[in-house]
Each structure stands twice: as C-alpha cells, then as structure tokens.
What does this fold into?
Amino acid sequence: EVHLVESGGGLVQPGGSLKLSCAASGFTFSDSAFHWVRQAAGKGLEWVGRIRSKPSNYATTYAASVKGRFTISRDDSRNTAYLQMNTLKTEDTAVYYCTRVLVTPFDFWGQGTLVTVSS
Amino acid sequence: SYELTQPPSVSVSPGQTARITCSGDAMPKKYAYWYQQKSGQAPVLVIYEDRNRPSGIPERFSGSSSGTMATLTISGAQVEDEADYYCYSTDTSGGVFGGGTKLTVL
It folds into this structure.
C-alpha cells in the first residue's frame, strides 16, 4: 500500500528556516517524481515545486513565489523527499503536502504538515 | 504566469448534473487533472488526462476538454460529492492549480 508521510512542520519566525520531509513506502521511490503543494487556511491549493527522478537528472522547478528561497531534494536510499525552506515569510504559512508522479500526477498524497510563520 | 480559472461555486440538487469548468490558454496542448478535496482531508484524484477515471472513482465522474476549457461533470450528484474541486495542469514553468470550485449538493 502506498504511503506518503510528511513531517517537520512547526512554528518558525519570519526570516527563519525549516526542512520538511516526505517519507514514502509501498512503491518504487526512485521511479517517481515528487511535488510539494501547499494550502493556506481557507485557501486553494498552490503548487510549490517538484523534483524529478534520476533518469531526468533530479531536475527541479519551483513556483515563482518560492523560487530562490525553497529547495527540493531527495534521498533515494532513504525513500525520502525534502523541502528546505529558507527566508520564510508570513505568507508561507500553510499545510504542506507532498505528492508523487509515477504515471499519473498526484495519485497519492500525504496527510500534510502545518508550517506556521509568525513572530 | 499561467492561470487556470474556475467558478468559485456551483450548486445543484441531489441527482442533478454538476458541471465545473476550468479555462486556461494552454488547455489545447496540455492535459487537465481534477482533484476532489473534502474538508480537512488531502485531495483525491478523480480525473486524469482530461477524461480518464482512476479505479475506485464512481462512474458518475467524467471529464472532457475542448479548446481552452476542461470540464468536470458529475452526473447524478450525491450529497457525498459536496467538496472543493481543483483542476491542475502544467506550463513551461511547472504546475498550476485552478482557484477551486466549491460544489454544494442540497
């Protein structure tokens, strides 16, 4: 059974950093691309960025709103994807989901982890 | 930046057909995907590549695309279909979601 479990969320001050993890199981992790999607309270889904698999050179791309501040990485040996968030702003406050692309985009999602940026 | 436009809300009575649209300039070249999100839950894929339904999704969910518009149709909507629905597609920069449509079934 496919599982994606996010962790690492919490309260951080503006300008701070946080690293989220997405631990995967139940499928061949190395074959998948991974995306991060966030959702502020009462708002819609916002695509954050993605990392492709090794055959695609682990290529990453990001939404304009986070480019230069967020970095997505992965460790295929640990079946884990990461979202490093730097220079956090209050508008980054959201639930962050990881989701995969194996054949079909976003067929499985994690339960999300809450990031709160506040002083 | 690329945008996908959805109506904020759609309301139908149980048993009626609900149609939710998603418009974007790149739709003629890119697939649309549809996700259902119920309150407090992670999104669930209901339609992929414009018109395909994943296993486990009821047959009343269908999708279509024509020109710059993709449409999610729920034929004979049920009370349990009440949720937020999001379309998703891609452009050269990455992915983008529509703003979401709140479907009310009552």
User: Anything to note?
Assistant: The CA atoms of residues 23 and 69 of chain B lie 4 Å apart.
